[in-house]
């Protein structure tokens, strides 16, 4: 992953982002309902047509080709805010992200995540890909708070117990700088007193210009 996400407790105000987050919340609720409801075929087809019409209406709006395009449209926000809103896995305004909150401390990040039924893999539990993805995301943000952006060079995940759905899962990550280019980050997920997964990653610093990002 590319690491350049801001602390998601530092919410950007203003009507634009409040509206985008509200829209994302509604989309997540729709995703959950599509999974949890036993929809009769006729109604499923009606909903399909309705959603297709909605998607077509959105295609008439100006289209954004990616994060940097969005930065160009909203330069007042900058890349860190844009990634905090739209980055895959946990963007505040991303319609497919789980309910994730976190705060930064020196060399570490702590927070919580709750996975709804839409993230189910093994019955009643979270898909392992989402467990790995959230841990990778959290470790990347921890690396960012060391002061430099970077890329995941290696990632190891250990699944100790199945991670349950609909429970508040504590997440944490701690970073240690190995040298001027490399940082090791270790993370864990915990449900109550039970550690469900751990991870370690090596991040290599990169030039922000490689992604079209100007240095601060």
SSE layout and pairing:
Blueprint lengths: L1 E2 L11 H22 L4 H19 L7 H7 L4 H9 L12 E7 L2 E7 L13 H17 L5 E10 L9 E9 L4 E10 L2 E12 L11
Helix pairs in contact: 3-4
Largest sheet entry: 7 strands, antiparallel
Strand order of the largest sheet: 1-4-7-6-5-3-2
Gross morphology is globular
Calculate Rg over CA atoms. Answer: 18 Å
Tell me what you see in this structure.
With 216 residues, the protein is an alpha+beta fold. The chain has one domain: Hotdog Thioesterase (Thiol Ester Dehydrase, Chain A). The protein has five helices and seven strands, in the order βααααββαββββ. Strands 1-4-7-6-5-3-2 form a seven-stranded antiparallel β-sheet, with helices on one face. The N terminus is likely disordered.
Give a quick set of tags describing it.
single chain; 216 residues; alpha+beta; Thiol Ester Dehydrase, Chain A; seven-stranded antiparallel beta sheet
Question: Could you give a quick summary of the protein structure above?
Answer:
The chain is of the alpha+beta class and 216 residues long. The chain contains 5 helices and 7 strands, in the order βααααββαββββ.
